[in-house]
Amino acid sequence: MARGQRVEIDGSESVPNFHGKELRFQREGGEGLTLEQLVEGSFYGATYLSEIERGRRRMPPDLARQVDRVLKTDGYFERGCEDVRKARKGGHAEYFADAAEMERFALTIEDWAPLLVPGLLQTEAYARAIVRAAVPRASDAYVQRNVTARLSRASIFKEEEPPAFWAILDESLIRRAVLPPEGMAELLEHIARVVRETRSLLQIVPVTTALHPFMMGMTRIMTFADAPSVVYTESLHSGQLIDDPRLVRSYRQSYDLLRADALPPEASLAMVEEAAEGFRNGTDRG
Q1: Cβ neighbour number for residue 126 with a 10 Å cutoff
Q2: Where are the transmembrane segments (predicted)?
Q3: Who has the most CB within 10 Å: 39, 123, 131, 169?
Q4: How wide is the angle at C-alpha 162 spanned by C-alphas 198 and 112, nearest 5°?
């Protein structure tokens, strides 16, 4: 998309789009404020507000209060925060909701997965086991809602212009038997099939690599055609979106170094398929 090109918003697509369209209408009406003028005095930038207007990010309550004050909208946007929060959650943990929504608009998605298979590569059995392990006392309805949300994310691969996906996995993920052998074989075969069919890239960091630049939890880097890149990091029961350009560059450098420590894509796929065969034949002991 050309720089400065206006993006038309279809408010009927979703609750975030509806409130984003109304935000633009209110901002451009009256005195015709720019994005910069509306965020002046806040901790947020014009790009962040632009993402909200296009339904790609959730408006934080503190920014909503400023918008209501500047636009004199009598608390409308602060009240709308709860509607958008519920609409975006859609079965995902609240801290992941924004990152999940942004997947749909990404040019590239690059995952580092040291502990869990990325959601875009999970099978139903694996997703169910992970959700149940994380929240063992949750209701069946809660588990099913979360499983459905995880699996539905893979629909981005069916888009006309899907994001380019690159995943780097720790070898322990394909060795540790978190499912019965049949389930593990199905998971690994599914990973290999998705990677091949979508022309994605997969690399494995072998267990023999004792030290590497990403000795930490799950990390994702996303780039966009008309917005700055972001990094999403996650740990137990929490996650964080990072858009500070300096930090994003640092994460990018670490991810590039990690690629160099990982096995080449074809060798990595061969390892995954060999492990799948081992689980099917009972020769992989995890």
Answers
A1: 24
A2: none
A3: 169
A4: 70
